[in-house]
Design brief:
The complex is a heterodimer of chains A (154) and B (174). Helix content of chain A is 67%, strand content 0%. By secondary structure, chain A is an all-alpha fold. Chain B has 174 residues and is mainly alpha-helical. Chain B folds into two domains: 53 residues; 107 residues, no CATH class. Chain B has a three-stranded antiparallel beta sheet. In chain B, α2 runs antiparallel to α3. Chain B is elongated, with a radius of gyration of 16 Å. Classes of the chains: A mainly alpha (154), B mainly alpha (174).
Chain lengths: 154, 174
């Protein structure tokens, strides 16, 4: 894949800047319409179960408009994701200007930290799915809007 | 399998490559400068499985899996297995490239966020040429765009394809 200009180092940083700023602008602009958005999750669409990403678009749009409680209710993963995005922009810009890789974020290449983050994400996802099962949201927000339910429920 | 050991002409970092990569122009895993692999072969270092260009002594973590199993496990665990898969694949691809290409921590988030997932498969695509040299497949460098597009629309299919290519490393070793 070829992106215009520069070697791999420059291309990667430009791509980060493009993707991250694009996501932030899109999330800010999409926020008023997010309730009418389509179901794009295969798990939700087919079997009516949430995946770890379910609710993240909603949560991210909420965060971009400062609605912290609503963001946490939809998907708390939006918080570390926004932090990562906000750090990525000045870091990639600084690396482009300096022409060298910064090393302060090398801890993000730690496998141990990755497994801890993954385990936290799995525990969080199981906990919220269990909570939604008992308060009925799993049925109303997910199962009742799935293809499986529509097929068998009709 | 014969190997060539040499120092990077730019940064003098010791490197070890498969003899089949002689004459190729690659990125040094240490300084990222373009270097040409010399044609002169040195005595074989026995028992060390290394990719074509990576720091001497480094090894690739074993992560062999049936591609269809990636799809099945990803689906029946509602995507939770793919979090583990992303981390393991990041470890393997970093080892193949011999440098820090994909952050395993970011790989956790890539399973949740499409733009991060796109970047994940873009970075995975960057390592495909090196993976291709390792497995003797020169056609892999042309598959980066396909991998990125699949990463956007059908990430599980992209994962299956990537797993299939990584499996070839272990099949070639066996």
């Amino acid at each position: 894949m070829r992106f215009p200009g520069g070697d791999e180092f420059v291309r990667n940083r430009r791509l980060v800047l493009l993707l991250v700023s694009g996501v932030l602008i899109a999330a800010w602009g999409y926020a008023p319409h997010v309730d009418r958005g389509p179901v794009v999750c295969l798990m939700h669409g087919i079997v009516g179960l949430p995946c770890p990403a379910c609710g993240l678009t909603h949560a991210f749009c909420d965060l971009m408009h400062g609605r912290l409680a609503s963001a946490a209710a939809h998907n708390a993963v939006a918080f570390p994701l926004l932090l990562l995005f906000l750090l990525a922009i000045p870091t990639a810009a600084a690396e482009l200007v300096l022409g060298r890789r910064l090393t302060f974020y090398d801890f993000l290449y730690s496998s141990r930290l990755a497994y801890m983050a993954g385990a936290t994400l799995i525990v969080y996802h199981v906990a919220r799915t269990t909570l939604w099962f008992f308060d009925g949201r799993l049925y109303t927000n997910y199962f009742a809007t799935s293809w499986l339910y529509r097929f068998w429920g009709s | 399998m014969a190997e060539i050991t040499f120092d990077c002409p730019e940064c003098k970092h010791p490197l070890k490559v498969d003899e089949s990569a002689a004459g190729m122009v690659v990125d040094c895993p240490q300084c990222a400068k373009k270097i040409q692999i010399p044609r002169k072969a040195t005595p074989l270092v026995v028992g060390v499985a290394v990719p074509p260009v990576m720091p001497a002594g480094a090894t690739i973590p074993v992560f062999r899996n049936e591609p269809i199993l990636v799809l099945v496990l990803g689906f029946i665990t509602c995507g939770l297995y793919l979090i583990y898969w992303n981390i393991k694949m990041a470890e393997v691809l970093n080892a193949v490239a011999g440098r820090k290409v994909i952050s395993p921590v970011a790989a956790v988030l890539s399973g949740c966020c499409v733009p991060v997932n796109v970047y994940y498969y873009y970075l995975a695509g960057i390592t495909l040429p090196q993976l291709g040299v390792l497995t003797g497949r020169s056609d892999l460098k042309d598959k980066t765009t396909m991998l990125v597009l699949l990463g956007i629309f059908f990430p599980m299919v992209a994962a299956m394809i990537l797993q299939g290519h990584v499996n070839e490393i272990y099949e070639k070793k066996a």
